[in-house]
Amino acid sequence: MTADLKPNQRLLLLTLMARGGSARNRDLGGIVSLEAADRKALVSQGLLVQGPRLPGGSFDLELTDGGWAAARKDFSAPAPSRSSSAAKALYAVLARLSTYMEAQELSAAQVFGGISSTSGDARPAARAIEDAYLALVTRPQGWVRLSALRKALPGFDRASVDAALIALLRARRVSIEPVVDQKTLTEDDRAASLLVGAAPAHHFAFLD
Question: Which 8-state DSSP code applies to residue 182?
């Protein structure tokens, strides 16, 4: 996918990832030069979502799940042809970072999620997760499938939810584990999984 994109399109996806998945277009202008046609092409390919225009003509740009995947895949891709020395250095760093993330079994959302300048930190998503959990759970500290959680939070992108879940896990407020009986998993359950350690987790429970 990334091989089919222009160098500036690839850099935009990487820049948005570095900002946690979303940013205001005016904040990106000094970093990546992107024509409207190139931006619209990313939207049409399902890699980018453009928000409504705000007063003053600015708008938000947000990576889709496909955009996150394309940006992450670019870590191990060669630098664009005729790259500047700075771009070559960037891709050398990305290649090294990719090796580290694979060794530590870290997802892009765990490394970059929840830190964008427009969406702030992971706390709003964490509060929304707790509210959704209380609405979905059938008994205190009961298990809730991640697939059900994601459907209950349409206003939050996947990266923000994943980052908030990891933050809650590190704070020892939740347990996130694989489902023991894998035969009960649906396609939605598998698609909604979160990599925790070496295995994909499918449900979670608050411990307090």
Answer: G
